[in-house]
Amino acid sequence: MNSLLSKLQSYPFEKWRFLIEDILPPEISHISFGIGEPKHRTPDFIKQALSNNLEGLSIYPATIGSSTLRQTISNWIKRRYNIEVNSEKNIIPVNGSREALFSFTQAVVDSLPDSKVICPNPFYQIYEGAVLLAGATPYFINADIEKNFSCDYSIIPEYIWQKVQLVFVCSPSNPTGSVMNLEEWRTLFELSDKYNFVIASDECYSEIYFDNPPLGALEASKILGRDLTNLVVFSSLSKRSNVPGLRSGFVAGDEKILELFLLYRTYHGCAMSSSIQMASIAAWSDEEHVQNNRNLYKEKFQTVIPILSPYFEIKMPDAGFYIWARILPEYQLSDTEFAQRLYAEHNVSCLPGSFLAREANGENPGKDFLRLALVSSIEECIEGANRIANFAANLR
User: Fold this and answer.
1) Which residues lie below 8 Å from residue 348, measured CB to CB, with a gap of 6+?
2) How far is the C-alpha of 192 from the C-alpha of 187, rounded, in Å?
3) Residue 337 to residues 132, 367, 370, 389, Cα–Cα distance (Å)
4) Longest dimension (CA), the chain
5) What's the predicted TM-score (pTM) here?
6) Concatenated DSSP letters for 146-175?
7) What are the structural domains of the chain?
8) Nearest to 388 by CA among 377, 372, 376
9) How many CB atoms lie within 10 A of CB 97?
10) Which of 13, 166, 366, 387 meets the CB 3.0–4.6 Å disulfide criterion with 122?
11) How far apart are CA 134 and CA 299, in angstroms?
């Protein structure tokens, strides 16, 4: 077996199951804020597009995807970011952003001695696993709570930058909901130009926002007068269109990198089914269902945050569907203890923040936080928030 597998940690949800395995919760309905799996209804027109094109199951699809799908994605990028992206050279359809983030890392990282990959902290655990199995070492940079959970790249030493091959960015962030601003992008682009590393921008939450559309990496690059050198963006339909089981997304960016990534993918065996492609074309072509989706999330946040804010250090995220709630010191409970007792006493599950981060520079930046995924119905979210508020009130 690959010896690098021994470096992988358990996934956060496995840690959660171990944390509660001996607990028998009260006999009331279970409410889960744990897994970030969209629960809103999949639009009928997407399901219809899938069922109308089942003949696609009888053919092998091309790894590059159909020209129609790539052009549809290019059209969406144009509408969303006002950017022209060549559908023939700068876009590859992928089976969801998770698959692509992992395989991209294997294709990009050259496992030279002491190769580094920068990861935000807290983070989406696929980054770490992909880096370790590519033979490199993750270098975590802690989100700064005083700066809207942004990452301060200026604190990374010169000798580290000289070994960096790839930098993961998650904007909007999972779990904090923060969005990178233009000056942060300027700094990262300048560092990439200086040290010649690749930027992988994970933007799968880009369409779940409440006021202004989040700035994307492609958009920032254009505004700053930069080309797409060493930049690849990852996007997905899962959250945008409530189709996590469709496993459909795209990568877009640097033509030279994508050319070699496509070569890797021809061996990787991950071509998207033609039937899925047709459903994806329908989804990327429509915005009304996306606006309706945003409105549902906005309503939930506007209702739930006032219930929880008296009991946590909490704020409205820039985007995404997570609440990143800081546990007050007066409760005298760690994040794991809080989550464990909440489940045991109120049958509500959420993820301890420390499960979503690693210790770096002497601290775990997820410690004393809870991640709440507002993916269920508004009624369930309100009920769950009230149970959490009651639990916290009793602790006082």
Assistant:
1) 30, 31, 32, 33, 342, 384, 387, 388, 391
2) 9
3) 30, 11, 11, 16
4) 62
5) 0.96
6) GGTTEE-GGGS-HHHHTTEEEEEEESS-TT
7) 3-41+289-395 (3.90.1150.10), 44-286 (3.40.640.10)
8) 372
9) 27
10) 366
11) 42
How do residues 88-117 score in pLDDT, each as one tens digit?
A: 999 999 999 999 999 999 999 998 889 999
Classify residue 363 by its DSSP letter: B
The Cα 376–Cα 387 span in angstroms is 15
C-alpha torsion angle, residues 373, 378, 379, 385 (rounded to 10): 40
Is residue 327 classed as helix, strand or coil in its secondary structure? strand
CA distances from 60 to 47, 97, 281 (A): 21, 22, 18
Residue corresponding to tokens 């209702």: 303
Q: Is 211 exposed, middle or buried (0-12, 13-18, 19+ CB in 10 A)?
A: exposed
Q: Which amino acid is at 53?
A: N
In this predicted structure, what is the pLDDT of residue 310? 97
